[in-house]
Amino acid sequence: MTTSVPDLRAAAASVRENAYAPYSNFKVGAAMRAKSGKIYVGANVENVSYPVGTCAEEAALAAMIAAGETEVVEAYVIADCAEPIPPCGACRQRLKEFGKDDVTVWLGTTDGAEEATTIGDLLPGAFDTAHMARS
Ligand code: THU
């Protein structure tokens, strides 16, 4: 697969327009295709107290969970930037929580560029419950 299915990209691009990013002026949109086939979207939401902000991926995953779904089968993240946006570290761990390692994550720009990666490639060596094992 070298190009994304247009519906997922369109959903991410559309919700990006509703992002609330007056401090960074960097709007991000995310779309998660869940196991049912439904698409859940989210945009970044900033706050005057900067650390309170929410990432687009975080918002989209929260919408999916709120709708009663727990598995992502394809994801799209889009921003207005020169190169496709690499998701932040915390959002890689969030994607890992709800998707298998081979799930495709599309990284796109509003100019139309996009590249495909996977949850496993974005987060090798993810934190896991095995790390909390006690003897
Ligand atoms: N942002 C996201 O929404 N997702 C990412 O993966 C990277 C960063 C947002 C957070 C903040 O509102 C703005 O982009 C600048 O960091």
General description of the model:
With 135 residues, this protein is an alpha+beta fold. It has a single domain, classed as 3-Layer(aba) Sandwich (Cytidine Deaminase, domain 2), CATH 3.40.140.10. Helix content is 27%, strand content 27%. It is built from four helices and five strands. It has a five-stranded mixed beta sheet. Strand 4 and strand 5 form a beta hairpin. The chain is globular. The model has no long low-confidence stretch (mean pLDDT 95). Tetrahydrodeoxyuridine is lined by residues 21, 24, 26, 28, 44, 46, 53, 55-57, 87-88, 91.
Q: Can you describe this structure in just a few lines?
A:
The protein has 4 helices and 5 strands, in the order αββαβαββα. The protein has 135 residues and is α+β, with helices and mostly antiparallel strands.
The description of the largest β-sheet is: 5 strands, mixed
**Widest beta sheet: strand line-up:** 2-1-3-4-5
User: Treating each run of at least 4 consecutive H or I residues as one helix, how many helices?
Assistant: 4
**Number of structurally distinct domains:** 1
The hetero compounds bound to this protein are: tetrahydrodeoxyuridine
Beta-strand fraction estimate: 25-35%
Helix content: 25-40%
Overall CATH architecture: 3-Layer(aba) Sandwich
Q: How many distinct beta strands?
A: 5
Gyration radius, in Å:
15 Å
Identify low-pLDDT runs.
Answer: none
What is the fold-level CATH name, i.e. the topology? Cytidine Deaminase, domain 2
- Secondary-structure-derived class: alpha+beta
Average per-residue pLDDT, rounded, comes to 95
Distance between the amino and carboxyl termini: 44 Å
The dominant shape is: globular
Order of helices and strands: HEEHEHEEH
CATH superfamily: Cytidine Deaminase, domain 2
**Which CATH class applies here?**
Alpha Beta
